[in-house]
Amino acid sequence: MSxxxxxxxxxxxxxxxxxxxxxxxxxxxxxxxxxxxxxVHPDRFASESAAQQxxxxxxxxxLNDAYQTLKSPTQRALYLLRQQAELPEETTIQDxxxxxxxxxxREQLETLQDQADFAAIDSFVxxxxxxxxxxDIAFAECVHDSEQRIQAERLARRMQFLDKMFYEVxxxxxxxxx
Length: 178
Hints:
Pfam families: DnaJ, HSCB_C. This protein is mainly alpha-helical.
């Protein structure tokens, strides 16, 4: 993902007529995307010159990248942080409190794999969703405050970890369904 602070980069929020914000209306975003996608669909440029066709494909790709980024709360959070300043690509979390929580969740997931208990998995997912909701709220409150930049980065990294946990739970559910 490129850094939008670079000259010549298109602001993903501006593409959709939005103010840069973590809290957005995802249904409105999807509706705007569908409208914009119709206008730039490469098939509409089939009778145009090769250069115009290429430009249409590039525009459609940029629009799709913007939509995929803004649609995902985690990617949107990271994008907002990158708009403000360079975001270190470090994946280690210098966050002792959350590191302990990660270990607990990993142990729970291992136990769930052994138990194959769908009710317990549902309960675990609810716990993860509550944690995610709290993280999202905290991020929205601090993302635009330069004094809280480190905390915003920490919360975005927590989002990334939870995305991974949700993915691993889905994998577990699929294995148990087989």
